[in-house]
Records
---
Amino acid sequence: MSTTAEPPAETEEERVSYFRSGTSLRSWLLTTDHKRIAILYLLSITFFFFVGGLAAALVRADLMTPAPDLMTNEGYNRAFSLHGIIMVWFFLIPSIPNTFGNFLIPLMIGARDVAFPRLNLLSWYIYMAGGLFALATLVLGGVDTGWTFYTPLSSMYANGSVVLVATAVFVTGFSSILTGLNFIVTIHKLRCPGMTWGRLPLFIWSHYATSIILVLATPVLAITLALIAAERLFGLGVFNPALGGDPLLFQHLFWFYSHPAVYIMVLPALGVISELVAASARKPVFGYEFVAGSSIAIAVIGFLVWGHHMFVSGQSVYASAIFSFLSLVVAVPSGIKVYNWTATLWKGHIALDPPFLFAMGFIGLFVVGGLTGLVLTMLAVDVHVHDTYFVVAHFHYIMVGGTVSAFFGALHFWWPKITGRLYPLAWGRVAALLIFIGFNLTFFPQFLLGYMGMPRRYHVYPPEFQVLNVLSSSGAGVLGAAYLLPFVYLLWSLRNGAPAGPNPWGATGLEWTVASPPPEHNFAEIPEVTRPPYDYEIERHDA
Amino acid sequence: MTESVSPYTDRRQRHAADMMGMYLFLGTEIMLFGGLFAAMALTRLQHPAEYVAHSRELHLWIGAWNTVILLTSSLFAALAVHAAREGAGRAAARWLGATAAFGLGFLALKATEYTLEFREGLLPVTGGDGALSEPVQRLFMHLYLVSTGLHAVHLTIGICVVTGLAWRLRRAESARAIPVEITGLYWHLIDVVWVFLYPVLYLAR
Ligand code: HEM
Ligand SMILES: [Cu+2]
């Protein structure tokens, strides 16, 4: 892609796009256009990604040495708690669904907007209100409970603004619920003629599955947090054994939400990867029905495995055995996806473009994260590695290695659609590679540390662990820089990138049939679909 | 602001979407109360004898009358939906008015019940908890207060919505059935939640 010295002039498509349909601040803050709401989310989650990232930087800096030199114990506890809370609820959960989901779902199914456009905007405001509570917590000194809020620590002993941060998470929960509800109804009711369930892009299938979890699991978190707040404020004793309650009930309720929630965080990423793999291989996705169905299977089985977080909590061994078995079962649909992506790439006509590189990075990291999940769900092994860095590495491989890579993959794939401009591909490749390297350098040592017995959530550790910790912290530096890189060239491309045209990757899917950036009403005329999904020309010539 | 784009191609599509959205919302409400029911079930499993003993301290008959009142209000809500489907706006408004009135009746009786409990020293709030001697009793009454309180909040919202709708339809010759149907669904959910709360709390004796 060549870039001329003069920035290219505004194109005709840009003049009539959703971007120019109003330029005042008001036109953005009161918009009901799903594409503009997506942009609002993109800006806000990016902000929270930085806040959470700063907290992580503090944690990793403190862990450079075995001594507690940078922060007090209290300060360290607050740093990792804030990191977890912000990253989970203010970045990861809304990340792909609320930005790319919002932008793409109506375009992909041939609709003019989501089913309830005003509810969609309300959802953003609720998210921002929750975000303000979270920032208030930060300013008022934070919390030291970890993102898991375990009782009786959170309900009786913790100092800091537990009620405030619980309110923050409670409030954003309703944003999740409304978004999930909106997506489900949109996908059911607004598909254009010919867009049958069997023709839906896999991105849609995975967002459908995600939305089911959002709608059914989030209310349980809401009531659980409300009970914690009631315990702190009024002495309601449902989690307090001295008052006749049971702290394990908290863990059951929390993980009943939070295990499904890990799939909220990864299912949209799986959908992104299916799109990226198909577009990179220029072939139909191998076993489309299985990839689609596995998303639903993950959503359903994901509700039945929460007990694998409680193997050492004293729950009955029979319960543990069943949860262990079901956790093995939930890995099967994830495995199906990986096999099908591999088969899709087989003999594909692959171009080493950034979206493809991000997808490859995702698959590798997701496999490591998934397989170590299976290791963790072995009852005997978990007794050894529970609450160690092994667990930390496991879930970062999926949530950061996987989901954040997919997020960047999506950003690089749909950026030309969203903005109408191309970015320098070479820089995209560099970023993809650096993220992959930085990530492994940061988190692979943590598997070793955990296996050797380093517990999570401590900032003082025996000196023999220092080498691996220094490796991990330097990796975090590389990773942080790699995450910043795309900001530079993507923002640069807004002014200087060449106009993208409607379909720069030659991909299938209705979103590529409209102009880039899309016009305000998406489709001048509601399209009609007559072809199967991922109907790539090349495959048809071969056949 | 530019005028917003309608995502719908026709009214039927819109109706179907609205109904589905409401059903999903009711699903989230059921999960919300589900967490409380789980806590009550666990408390009963762990302290069966105490749970039964403290259930006996509740005012069985006030709860029973409230069940009757709420079920009747649901009947009125159903009749309002029926009238709206027939296009009879004013009749729908009248039935909605009756629904809201019975909802208010429920709240009044509930408030009386709370007052009685406060006087008896059974309510786990400052000044009203003199008779709460053992932990499980306090826990039981806490769960009672939180779950019936959350239910009352939902009912209050329901009353406001129903009243607002009745006001809008008071002179209407015809009525769009969808808002009435959706409001009716919400009302029935409030009713159903109570139908579960009543046995779990009052009838465990
Ligand atoms: C292949 C399926 C998976 C299995 C069998 C599995 C298994 C496990 C087990 C047994 C634990 C508990 C370890 C312990 O604390 O002792 C765990 C923790 C965790 N897993 Fe997974 N996992 C899987 C997939 C995932 C996915 C897809 C995600 C995220 C998107 C994820 C995120 C997490 C998180 C966040 C924790 C730790 C929570 C905490 O204690 O802070 N897991 N996993
Ligand atoms: Cu889990």
---
Amino acid sequence: MSCPIYDESPDLLMDFAAGKLDWESKQRMDVHVSKCAICHEALAAQAMVWKALDEWDAAPVSMDFDAKLYARIETQHATVWGNLKSLLLPATTWFRWQPAIGMAGVGALFLAVFLLRTPAPAVHGDGVRMESHEIEQAELALDDVEMVDKLFAESKGEAQSL
Amino acid sequence: MEDQDPLLKFPQPSPSIRVQKDMIAVAALERDAELMLRVRDGDTESFTLLLNKHRGPVIHFLYRMVQNQAVAEELAQEVFLRVYKSRANYEPSAKFTTWLFRIASHLALNHIRDSKNERTQDSIDESDDDGRTLQVADRGMTTEQAMVYQARLAEIRRAIRVLPEKQRAAVVMHKYQEMEYSQIALVLECSESAVKSLLFRAYETLRVRLAHMAG
Ligand SMILES: [Zn+2]
């Protein structure tokens, strides 16, 4: 004994059990299932499976999920920022320890970015030639730093308002 | 390593393509893709909106795949981190949720394969599962009811767990995420008929394994 619907269109039974059939298809399946022992049995079993799976709820999400995610994004940005500095200012790691010179370094960074936005490859004071993909990378990294700052300012604001 | 991940690769956009232009292309698509384009353009609020909308479904999907809440949340962190990291190259070539669940299922399937040799099925059964404990507490059951419920739940979880990974993913997406066959096919990168076949075989196995729970 076989049934063409069970053998060739089992999705009809799955959709029927899931209540996903449109009205017309449902009517046709109702008629068929009332006459076909194979589909009748399969449908009852599928409905039982569906009901059993309904019992399995998912747990609530941890309260600190977002905070952890933002922290990971921040860590990633710190890395991007570090890479950016080493890309643009390879010989100036000492400037972090000199606040006044550090400010000058920030100015130099913006000047460097301004120069990088020119169409031709830029040549820097240290003689390092910047390839176009490095320019894009530097610009993207700057965008990233700006974005993550905003993201964290917003998340801190939300946390304070709670 | 992540640079090699094919999941994160999009057709490379021309530098001249701007958000406004993409907005026209995506207008008929969906709100999520529009938000993702805004994230690409530096709008942090849109990333938060996407996270708020999809955090639950992604974690619930991963939880039912790996059956451990802590691991599910860790994998979900990775999913959203990858979404964020790949925003600069985002192109709305597919539905956002398809892309999101493709990343999630890829990570889940990898995790399942990697951990297969590390843990036995029994050790998974005996693991502390805060999700299961919470369900009992929330349902206000007596001790006896809780024990019966725990036993049923353990059987359901085991029945899902012993399905081949792709069948498991297909069932979880079909049953719990209520995805259409076409979307599951896109997520699992197979044909729609292959998805129907996966689901049919999976439900057939579940019918046998859970048959004694009827009534
Ligand atoms: Zn039939």
